[in-house]
Amino acid sequence: MHICLAGLSHKTAPIDVREKIAVAPADYQRVLNEIAKRPSLRELVVVSTCNRTELYCVADAYHAGTNSLDEAFGDMGQRAGLEVDSHLYRRHGAAAVRHLFRVAASLDSLVVGEPQILGQVKDAYKAAADSSLTGVALDRLFAHAFEVGKRVRTETAIGSYAVSVPSAAVDLAKKIFGSFSGRRALVIGAGEMAELTLRHLYESGVERVTVANRTRATAEAMAREFQAPVVGLDDLPAALVHADIVVASAGAPDYLLRRPQVEAAMKERRNRPVFIIDIAVPRNVEPAVGQVYNVFLYSVDDLEKVVEDNRERRAREAERAEQIIEQEVERFLRWWVGLEAVPTIVALREKIEKLSIEESQRLLSRLQHLPERDRKLIEQFGPQLVHKILHLPTAQIRNVGDAERCASLASSLRFLFRLDDVTHGGGEGGHAPGTERVADDAGGAGEAPPPE
Questions:
Q1: To which CATH superfamily is domain 165-307 assigned?
Q2: pTM
Q3: Cβ contacts of 203 within 8 Å, gap of 6 or more
């Protein structure tokens, strides 16, 4: 068996390609069922987010599996009027395992450490499992990936440092107010930075956010998801009175907030503190506003320093996360090596058991004079002896821990005992009856990388 992966992401494809190849959660079942019809695919999971679309499979043969995934992407591209092959990356074996673990741990994300990706991978796996398209290998692989994501989140601080200006602005506001419970915010502008700020504020527990913009229709489109009220720029003085947090990111040639406006608002607020962050270039807030009592004004330069420091911190945490992933890849592969030896173990046991039964029956045919109790003892002797003889070598091959050595030992056993004469299922990576039982005895599933 071979674990194979093909995909495209923000690292290999522009947004206009990614958005046309992306699979919506509502379409997972349909797409999974279409791709699963392709030859050689035993198990399949489709992972699709705004920044990646990836196909994971377990295949009978490496080349047949990767060809099926390439053809699936080719069909998706053809329907979208795109040529996607040049944007694809492909992984197999240990490299595919490592890639999934890095995705689940948010080390392969556009923003390293973002927490949403693990939930998206879980949803993708559930869709495949609900369609009965996963089995012992991908079930174990994705369960292990979820453990890795959780371990990285628990044992490192990779998600603790804000690495975008909007997130840094919200983090800074938290330090000033301690809690956002009961707090209200005002976002000036309706561009990308304003939308990110709006999202961070709501996710951080702000009671309500008002959006102010020159063009109301643009602001309403941005605020609809959050059911945030919208006002025009002429209403800024009144909106300021009720805002504990103000984030300004509008595209304007001149200041939108000046000292007299803010002083008037603070008088009505009875000097309750206000946090103002101006992330616009050119600036939206007159620098003199920072001189008003109980007004905390920060510019984008203040935040850029915080963001840069945090990026360095996340990079250090990412190094720790990579070490965790290497440990977990090794652990998974040890399990997979044992699983790969299962068909040989099953075939060996079947052949020896068959020989034992044949010899026992031949012996018993000559001992018809024995009492029934003695005949039963002879019948039991063969299976017991087979078990004792095979226990140690089968345990050794399952636990050898090295993929290449395991494959070599399995190949030697198959040659010495002519096991291919009795293997059921046939073909590359074929399962013999009882594989699942022996796999459970082996203690898990993993994969050694197939040869190039």
A1: NAD(P)-binding Rossmann-like Domain (3.40.50.720)
A2: 0.62
A3: none
